[in-house]
Design a protein that fits this description.
Layout lengths: L18 H19 L8 E3 L5 E3 L4 E3 L2 H8 L2 H22 L27 E8 L6 E8 L11 E6 L12 E7 L6 E6 L11 E5 L4 E7 L3 H8 L8
Antiparallel strand pairs: 1-2, 2-3, 4-5, 5-10, 6-7, 7-8, 9-10
């Protein structure tokens, strides 16, 4: 960065850069680096959706412009997912060389375990509480689900967020997204929540499975409007 003309700095010296200016410079450097190494026309994970935003099919993230996407590709999350995908493809390649048998499991490629036919016993009970952080003023939701008939030692429930254009239950509405929670032997339940970006930091988003009480707790926090505007700014992008 050029610190020479910053207020309070001497000629030839370097002024103190703000955190936002430092982040902006980092994003711009990542974008330029990505432009030198990535051809978006040949990127299999680059996708422009019907509303004009750009999506990363590998990380399931949405970006307001190609500069934000390019900066994302140089971030830790995208690079980690690329490494995982490469390791998976390498493993499948070795399995094909062995006649289509996975050497780790002894099963055909793509078969990780024996499928079980489970009888679904209905939906779990649940309670939803609106929450707000007193310091950041972030809004969020706390989900409490009860699974009284879950088997002892059953795995913890799993959850994920699905956008409105992926589901086929009702007409898509871009203003909403769906939070799904699945646990055997219960039916998967879905909650319709605002289509706002989630804050994925560990102290903001977490889940907990109480195996004794057979209750599942899940908290999600939405980013503030200021953070969402920052994410949409060209060349700045959000957290990776």
């Amino acid at each position: 960065m050029d610190f020479q003309n910053r207020a309070g700095s001497k000629f030839g010296g370097g002024g103190v850069a703000s955190q936002s200016a430092t982040n902006a410079d980092r994003r711009e450097r990542l974008r330029k680096l990505a432009l030198e190494t990535i051809d978006l026309d040949k990127d299999p994970y680059f996708f422009k959706n019907h509303v004009g935003s750009f999506e990363c099919r590998l990380c399931l993230t949405v970006h307001q412009n190609d500069g934000s996407y390019l900066a994302h590709t140089q971030g830790k999350k995208h690079q980690t997912n690329l490494a995982r995908r490469a390791a998976k493809e390498e493993k499948e390649g070795r399995a094909r060389e062995n006649g289509g048998i996975d050497p780790a499991t002894g099963l055909p490629v793509g078969v990780a375990q024996v499928r079980r036919n489970l009888v679904k016993i209905g939906r779990p009970g649940y309670k939803i509480t609106k929450i707000r952080d007193p310091h950041t003023r972030q809004q969020g939701l706390l989900f409490q689900l009860q699974y009284p008939d879950a088997a002892p030692g059953a795995p913890a429930p799993k959850w994920q967020v699905m956008n409105a254009f992926t589901q086929h239950v009702e007409e898509p509405d871009r203003n909403y997204q769906y939070l799904l929670v699945a646990a055997e032997p219960y039916e998967t339940v879905g909650f319709k929540i605002p289509a706002r970006e989630l804050d994925k930091r560990e102290d903001r988003q977490f889940d907990y499975w109480d195996a004794d009480a057979k209750e599942y707790w899940l908290q999600v926090m939405f980013m503030t409007e200021r953070e969402e505007r920052y994410n949409a700014a060209p060349g700045l992008g959000g957290r990776t």
